[in-house]
Amino acid sequence: MDDGSNDARMIPPADDRPADDFDADERPAARAAPKHRRTSSSSSVAGSGEKRPRAAPRSDFRIAEQPGFVLHSYPYRETSLIIDVFSRDFGRVALVAKGAKRPHSALRGVLQTFQPLGLSWSGKGEVRTLTTAEWVGGMLPLAGDALLCGFYVNELLVKFCAREDAHPALFNHYVLTLSRLAHDEPAVQVLRSFERVLLRETGYAMNLTRTVTRQPVVAEGRYVFDPDRGVGEASDDLPAPWPVISGQTLIDMERDDYTSPQTAAQSKTLMRFLLNHYLGGTPLATRQILIDLQKL
Q: Which residues form the DNA replication/recombination mediator RecO N-terminal domain (predicted)?
């Protein structure tokens, strides 16, 4: 997996055609990125005759060799795919993979979920054109229960991450999560850890060590987590759906330690409650499958 040392390269495209103007028979991988910016032949520095480079609009830039993963894909026209990718430096991006469904397409076997890729794209608008995709390697494939957990993680990213909103720390934790799942670490521990990082990185910070009145959480205490305020002491007049959590569970969650059976059970209940609240009650398809299988 790319260690972050190779930053994304932003290079102007070879021509100004929008993504949809390319012929359907053109293979995306065949278009190489130009090495230099184009300059205007008519613009010059006053009095010097020296040509001044014309800055290309950001929407026209080509992104090259960006580390990323396919989160989801669906058919587009007869031979193409729309893929939703999670990239390190640009967040979620929608790309059209032209000709990817053709039997001999170079992209056909590459655009798989849970595999690290080097992605290049260009174009304007909400959906850009994928130009190349290369398998980076270095990660074990997911199988069985780990595969279902991976789809759950992908669905969370789609639900919580806005388009083209970069989350490099979340990207790095996503890579770690896939690796832990592939090595058969306990799903309960891996998923709780990812959910907490997801909420923190998308603006739903969770301070579990102090109450809303700035009192320290104690292991013997009984608490609730108000989604809009934070940790509070449990009382008899709580809203019905709010789960009561022990102080020890909150302390363990802050330490990212889910080995205790009580912490594993209560943290699962708490995270279900919080995710449902922040999603406005929108159900997660993969969560229901995992709940049915008693794996989440």
A: 65-137
